[in-house]
Write a structure and sequence with these properties.
Length: about 120
């Protein structure tokens, strides 16, 4: 399984960015696609996730500003980020978690998001 992310960049506070991630390979139909982020000196944290059934989960810090969506046919996930804040600055990672016990997660390469004040 490979994950390819795109859409990072630099933006001023209050701006918007849209991240996308396409998964390819042998993918179990029942899975969760998500976005994590890691800021310098901090642990990686969940930003948002969406299951193959459409259930969404957001961290409190992004609720009301970020929106996650997916296309099950193409195994693609998007993260629409609005009203960005400097504290959103981080490397964002796409994640695929098959809903099979004892199965590893898959990670894409990170994409940098920088929000200036």
């Amino acid at each position: 399984v490979q994950l390819q992310a795109s859409g990072g960049g630099s933006v001023q506070a209050g701006g918007s960015l849209r991240l996308s991630c396409a998964a390819s390979g042998s993918i179990f139909s029942f899975n969760v696609l998500g976005w994590y982020r890691q800021a310098p000196g901090k642990q990686r944290e969940l930003v948002a996730s969406i299951s193959s059934g459409g259930r969404r989960n957001y961290s409190d810090s992004v609720k009301g500003r970020f929106s996650i969506s997916r296309d099950n046919t193409n195994n693609t996930v998007w993260l629409q980020m609005n009203m960005l804040k400097p504290e959103d600055t981080a490397v964002y990672y796409c994640n695929l978690r098959p809903l099979i016990p004892e199965t590893p997660n898959y990670w894409g390469p990170g994409t940098q998001v920088t929000v200036s004040s």
